[in-house]
């Protein structure tokens, strides 16, 4: 009678699968926890960045109110735009001026005698062109002394004092035309020659004795009867903060006035940026029970404090006892039910017309709303500000989490290696047991056979 087979081991253990499954099971909880922390930290970094950006945008939007430039913006108008145009900067003061333009500034232009063609040889020697204390001397040699050669030499000279040369050909022949690149009597030029064959003297010109095609002269004009001159038709020094561009002779008024639209534009930008800030805050701190949505920074004390301080300042009342606006609502900036602002520009226009200084003081004065808010935002967003430090701490935490992940991976690698070693040894042992089992089975079978 045969005996039953004895099974003591197997050589078919799947070591790789066993180790992978055990390792995955062991690291699953930690991986999930670290991933959740990384995700939450990344979300907070992004949220703080968005909040800080909305504050910076608000600060930039109200810059014209903070530095008061919205109140120093001037607009100009002229009585006759064909006579002149005018622009004003922050230094200009409201006023009206009567300007009479007697002469426009011109550049000297000279025209030489006629030559047969532009290739006609003029002469040899040294040709000197001078303007004031500057001059250039051209060596006009034989073979390179045509009218064209002289024109090109003048235009290409590195020490050209400010003259351009061209050739104009009429019915009588070709003429060398020289023109000063700058207007004004001081930019009149002389042309003289020396040496050579003497024929370059045909190009000589002295504004003191010769008649120019166009004489160099300064602009001459009066401002409210006061005489003035300028070497250029663009006059920036006659009236503080005003630049005049003279076009032709004649009379025109120039009126400089404050531009109320600049203040309105600045307030409009402030309101839009404030509303964007409120929207960002509400998104980051919202709780939507219906859709089960929670803001990334819901309940955050820092954001709540900042929002509260800004809202309080924007809605604050001036303690001054004088006439004029006491709050932004007096200027047409009022809160709506949802916490945003709306702007009625007609109220601002009225305040600027009736109480311009008080309006400027409320918005841009040393104790004005815009400078105060600007200072607050800087304190939060500067390198030492709470939002900057908050971001730095979150970034440090991100690095720490990355290191934790790296360290955990090292630990789990060691664990995986240890399991692999152990299960490989078990597989080897089971293989040996399997072989021993086969041998014993054979011996039992042999004994059974011998007895039968």
Let me know the number of strands: 18
Helix content: 40-55%
What's the tally of helices? 10
Estimate what percentage of residues fall within beta strands.
15-25%
List the keywords.
flat, alpha+beta, disordered N terminus, 452 residues, 5-stranded antiparallel β-sheet, 3-stranded antiparallel β-sheet, 10 helices
What features would you describe in this structure?
By secondary structure, this protein is of the alpha+beta class. It contains ten helices and 18 strands. The strands form six sheets. Strands 1-14-3-10-11 form a five-stranded antiparallel β-sheet, with no helix packed on it. A three-stranded antiparallel β-sheet has the order 2-13-12, with no helix packed on it. The protein has a three-stranded antiparallel β-sheet with strand order 4-8-7, with helices on one face. Strand 17 (333-335) and strand 18 (341-343) form a beta hairpin. Helix 1 packs antiparallel against helix 9, helix 1 (15-61) packs antiparallel against helix 10 (386-451) and helix 7 packs across helix 8. The protein starts with 14 loop residues before the first helix and ends with a helix. Residues 1-10 have low confidence and may be disordered.
């Amino acid at each position: 009678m045969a005996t039953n087979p004895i099974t003591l081991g197997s050589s078919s253990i799947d070591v790789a699968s066993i180790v992978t499954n055990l390792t995955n099971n062991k690291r699953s909880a930690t991986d999930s926890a670290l991933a959740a922390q990384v995700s939450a930290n990344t979300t907070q970094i992004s949220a703080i960045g968005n909040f800080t950006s909305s504050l910076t945008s608000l600060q930039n939007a109200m810059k014209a109110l903070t530095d008061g430039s919205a109140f120093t913006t001037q607009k100009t108008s002229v009585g006759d735009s064909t006579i002149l145009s005018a622009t004003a900067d922050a230094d200009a003061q409201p006023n009206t001026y009567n300007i009479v333009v007697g002469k426009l500034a011109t550049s000297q232009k000279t025209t030489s005698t006629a030559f047969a063609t532009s290739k006609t040889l003029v002469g040899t020697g040294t040709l000197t062109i001078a303007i004031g204390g500057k001059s250039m001397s051209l060596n006009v040699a034989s073979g390179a002394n045509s009218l064209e050669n002289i024109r090109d030499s003048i235009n290409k000279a590195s020490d050209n004092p400010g003259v351009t040369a061209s050739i104009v050909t009429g019915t009588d022949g070709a003429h060398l035309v020289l023109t000063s690149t700058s207007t004004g009597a001081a930019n009149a030029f002389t042309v003289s020659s020396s040496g050579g064959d003497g024929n370059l003297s045909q190009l000589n010109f002295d504004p003191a004795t010769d008649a120019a095609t166009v004489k160099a002269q300064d602009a001459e004009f009066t401002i409210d009867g006061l005489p003035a001159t300028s070497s250029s038709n663009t006059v920036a020094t006659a009236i503080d903060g005003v630049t005049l561009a003279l076009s032709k002779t004649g009379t025109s008024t120039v009126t400089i006035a404050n531009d109320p639209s600049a203040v309105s534009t600045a307030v409009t930008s402030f309101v839009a940026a404030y509303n964007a800030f409120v929207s960002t805050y509400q998104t980051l701190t919202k709780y939507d029970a219906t859709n089960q949505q929670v803001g990334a920074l819901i309940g955050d004390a820092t954001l709540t404090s900042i929002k509260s301080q800004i809202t309080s300042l924007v809605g604050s009342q001036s303690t001054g006892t004088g006439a004029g606006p006491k709050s932004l609502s007096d200027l047409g900036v009022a809160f709506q039910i949802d916490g945003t602002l709306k702007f009625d520009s007609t109220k601002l226009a009225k305040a600027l017309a009736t109480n311009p200084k008080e309006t400027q003081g409320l918005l841009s004065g040393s104790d004005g709303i815009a400078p105060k808010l600007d200072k607050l935002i800087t304190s939060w967003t500067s390198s030492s500000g709470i939002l900057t430090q908050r971001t730095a701490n979150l970034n440090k935490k991100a690095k720490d989490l990355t290191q934790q992940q790296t360290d955990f991976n090292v630990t789990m690698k060691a664990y995986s290696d240890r399991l692999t070693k152990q299960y490989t040894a078990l597989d080897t042992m089971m293989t040996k047991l399997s072989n021993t089992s086969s041998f014993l089975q054979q011996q039992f079978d042999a004994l059974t056979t011998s007895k039968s």
